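Supplementary Methods, section 5.1.

A reviewer requested that the exact input to the structure prediction be made available. We therefore reproduce it here, unchanged from the version used in the analyses.
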Amino acid sequence: MNKTILDLWVGLFVITGIAALLFLALKVGSMSAVNTSNSYEVVARFDNIGGLKPRAPVKSAGVVVGRVADISFDNESFEAAVTLRLDKRYAFPKDTSAAIMTSGLLGEQYIGLEAGGDSQVLKDQDRITLTQSAVVLENLIGQFIYGKAQEGAPQ
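The structure derived from this sequence is encoded token-by-token as follows.
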């Protein structure tokens, strides 16, 4: 009987450990449940989104104020339409600008919001018109190499 109780405690400990690992994996992967009732969605269009993915953070002044809800391609304007789900606690002016930023040199990409000065605030399904696309590292390197080649070319 003593072995049975010990086996029961070991089993409970293993189940608790697996549940804790699952919880941490969901938190790290940003896949935990989101309360969508306290949020509103706005759309921003970009020429190039780089490696931006759904569920990427939306930050303002370094604070996470929302998440990227959806990314789609507009066949008419040939731009990426990014739907942002913002927490209702944060009211941004209508002239807010959105830029695709990178954490560190090669880190994850996120949307950075810069608040404007308009007295009216963004509402559900509004559009952010001031956007800045992602900086593509390969393009920067190509421009740098092309610039250096032009400097060294005989005239």
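The beta strands are 39-46, 57-60, 63-74, 79-87, 97-102, 109-114, 126-128, 130-132. These observations are discussed further in the main text.
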